[in-house]
Amino acid sequence: MEALLSALNLSITDKALLIFSPICAMLGSLVHAIISEIDLSKFPKPGKNGKINGSLRTPLELLLVFKWLFSRLIVGAIIGFVFSLYFIGIIKEDTTSLSRVFGFAVLVGYSAPKLWNSQEKFVIGYIDTKMKDIESLINKKIENAESNEG
């Protein structure tokens, strides 16, 4: 990996961007996961037998929660990596510039689920529009073919 990075002539700042932006985005995604799972406006109250919310999670539920959390972290890391690619070669080699980019990476990771959802809605809407256009063209050609036959 180091040989690949050295062959690309990346500065130490660029290497730091590639390594720490995904980590910062993962932290932002983790914060979003915590906030979406826990109601931070209320202090948790013990339920039955002193357990929080009255029940402990089963092993299957814990596995699903781990899978959900791991998926969120992976999405955050991918977005953080892509985010870092935008800044390679243009950041001054000082800590102020890097800290601003890393702070922004945390915010990008925090909004990662919303970014993926909005992108998905856009792509689905775009595909639906194109499919309707194709369908109308096909219908016009059918109508033209029928009118030419008659």
Question: What would your notes on this structure say?
Answer:
It contains 5 helices and no strands. The chain is 75% helix and 0% strand. 16% of the residues are buried. The chain has 150 residues and is an all-alpha fold. It folds into 2 domains: 10-40 and 55-110, no CATH class; 113-150. α2 (12-37) runs antiparallel to α3, α2 packs parallel to α4 (95-110) and α3 (59-85) crosses α4 (95-110).
Q: If helices are DSSP runs of H or I spanning 4 or more residues, what is the number of helices?
A: 5
- Total number of domains: 2
- Radius of gyration, in Å, reads 24 Å
Order of helices and strands: HHHHH
Shape: flat
Structural class: mainly alpha
What helical percentage do the residues reach? over 70%
Q: How many runs of DSSP E, i.e. beta strands? A: 0
Indicate the proportion of strand residues.
under 5%
Unreliable spans are: none
Distance between the termini: 70 Å
Name the average pLDDT.
78
Largest sheet: none
